[in-house]
Amino acid sequence: MAVLPLIEAEDLPPEHRDIVKSGMNLHKTMVHSPETSRWSQRVGGYLRYDAALDPRLRELGILQVACIAGSEYEYAQHLRIGREFGMSDADLAAAAIETAGGDSGLEPLARLVMRAAREMTTGHAARPETMRELAAALSAEHLVDLIFTLAFYVGFGRLTGSFELEVEPNRRPLLDRFPMRAAG
Question: CA of 130: how far to CAs of 25, 94, 114, 141, in Å?
Fold first, then answer.
């Protein structure tokens, strides 16, 4: 059960109703602090729609963060977002496979991104050798976008877990099809 009550649009003053228009439990919780919610949505929107990083690599990294952090909420959200950005079934299944120590069959750069995500989620930072490999494979702009995105979602995994947010029912079908833990 969520730590804070979820606030519906009709329970908000008109100037804050747009914050919860997505229907997401995250936004219905974050609206307890409207300005924090607005800034969070701005950053998330920038990372999703305006940052230079390839969307597939971004979403693979975020899915890996969610798996490692045990954030079912973020995992479910980004399965849907990944699908919206054209990710294949193999891509969507990759994070759980990589988390379990398996070979997802993805190309080396995608696996490197996922390795950085694991390191940043379980430790304090990506290892220096991982960063050197990423710097050799990505432009400086893409590297900054990637590391900022992974750090942002490590935090969001902890936020959604701390608030005990439940996955919305309309997100369950993809979560059921691509569970966070690979069968093995």
Answer: 35, 19, 10, 17
Copy the structure tokens of residue 124: 């304090």
Q: How far apart are CA 68 and CA 150, in angstroms?
A: 12
**13-34 per-position pLDDT tens digit:** 999 999 999 999 999 999 999 9
Task: Record the tokens describing residue 73, joined without a space.
Answer: 């909420």
Burial bucket for residue 133 (CB in 10 Å: 0-12, 13-18, 19+): middle
Cα distances (Å, whole numbers) of residue 57 to 24, 93, 180: 24, 14, 18
d(CA 70, CA 61): 14
Domains and CATH numbers, the chain: 54-177 (1.20.1290.10)
